[in-house]
Write a structure and sequence with these properties.
single chain, mainly alpha, 19 helices, globular
Length: 395
């Protein structure tokens, strides 16, 4: 079997596998995310990730999956609500940076990497996975919880910071000058600021354009706008995820509600492919040698990131259950960490690749499981039953 036939057969098997894994996860009462990651790891051990005709399709759709996850989260909030939350949680972003970047930098020094590679490793340990966290918040029914604005504020502050961090790291790893790095930073931040201002000023007209009666028109117009804006932000070195999130913020009221209904099945499909694709990037034979260093780094930064979430939720006035949910939800690392590791590998620091992928795989799985069991863990600590229902008001 060759060509189109092989592509369709492989893609069909992938989709069937994802469906079975999701059904199995629902039967167990757990998140399917760890199962999707492990399935990608299993597929990657063979030839699919390197030579399979469906591999390019999966990797491309996986990128769209991340954008849809952030778009759907943006649709839950207005620009005014979220800009207020961002201002309120700026200190949480500072705590996030101070606690989570230094462990990666120090680990790089101890492993003997140049300081430029150490800076890249600091970014890998600093940034949470927008894709995994967004999926967890939505999947676990926590979009309306009091801690969710704090979680999203930290995520978006990280993604906006990446608009400055990624150009700097890329230039430094390539041996460029500080002036070249500064130009890249200014361009990226300028695009992000322009999109945010446009979202606040032109939200209502955009809602009229994107809100016709036919569901298929809503799908095509909202998805097309999201991909266009994400492409522009990515082209100048900013975060495509930030662009997608800001499109969601710009769509007002009833139009946002209709867009969520229409896009939800598409988001679920593409998001599943994202997590599978991430597992495909991991070369299994390289995991074991990197495991000790990755495990120690994962334990340290699991604790520092958990405190970040606790601190951000506490600033929101959230109770104990909500604080622990926020702490557990921010733990996963993912797509940005892999992007940063790729920049380091291209510069010649090949050893950072297995370390980063092992680290991300550990926290991607552990963070997903911990987020799912956060209420139960808190109930045991406090000697009470789960407070899932009260979480929307007091916790």
């Amino acid at each position: 079997m060759e060509g189109v036939g092989l592509f369709l057969a492989e893609l069909g098997l992938v989709l069937l596998l994802l469906g079975l894994l999701r059904a199995f996860a629902e039967r167990l009462g757990v998140s399917p995310i760890p199962l999707f990651l492990l399935a990608g790891l299993a597929f990657g051990a063979g030839n699919f990730a390197q030579e399979g005709p469906a591999s390019e399709f999966v990797s491309t759709t996986a990128e769209i999956g991340v954008l849809l996850l952030l778009l759907m989260l943006g649709l839950e909030f207005s620009t005014a609500e979220f800009s207020a939350a961002m201002r309120r949680h700026a200190p949480s972003g500072i705590v996030d940076l101070v606690l989570n970047a230094p462990p990666g930098f120090v680990a790089g020094l101890l492993l003997g990497y140049p300081w430029q590679v150490c800076l890249a490793l600091a970014g890998i340990t600093w940034i949470s996975s927008s894709g995994i966290v967004a999926r967890l918040v939505s999947e676990l029914g926590r979009t309306g919880n009091r801690e969710t604005p704090a979680i999203l504020s930290v995520l978006v502050l990280e993604d906006v910071a990446m608009a400055a961090f990624l150009p700097v790291v890329a230039v430094l790893l390539a041996g460029g000058t500080p002036l070249q790095a500064a130009v890249g930073v200014l361009a990226a931040l300028g695009v992000v600021a322009a999109i945010f201002i446009a979202a606040r000023r032109f939200g209502k007209p955009l809602g009229r354009v994107l809100g016709p009666r036919q569901p298929e028109q809503v799908l095509l117009r909202v998805l097309g706008t999201t991909l266009l804006v994400a492409g522009i932000t990515s082209a100048v070195g900013a975060s495509a995820a930030v662009g997608a999130f800001l499109v969601g913020l710009a769509i007002p009221g009833s139009t946002a509600t209709r867009a969520r209904e229409v896009l939800r099945p598409l988001r679920d499909l593409f998001a599943a492919l994202f997590f599978l694709s991430f597992g495909l990037t991991v070369e299994t034979e390289s995991l074991l040698p990197a495991l000790p260093a990755a495990f120690v780094l994962a334990i340290v930064t699991l604790l520092t990131k958990a405190y970040t979430g606790w601190y951000a939720a506490r600033r929101e006035g959230v109770g104990a259950y909500g604080r622990i949910r926020a702490a557990m939800t921010l733990i996963p690392r993912g797509e940005f960490s892999i992007v940063i590791a790729g920049l380091a590998v291209m510069s010649g620091a090949t050893g950072i690749g297995p370390l980063a992928t092992t680290y991300v795989l550990i926290l991607g799985i552990a963070g997903s499981l911990l987020a799912r069991t956060a209420d139960k863990l808190t109930g045991r600590i406090l000697g009470r039953e789960s407070a899932a229902a009260p979480s929307r008001s007091t916790d």
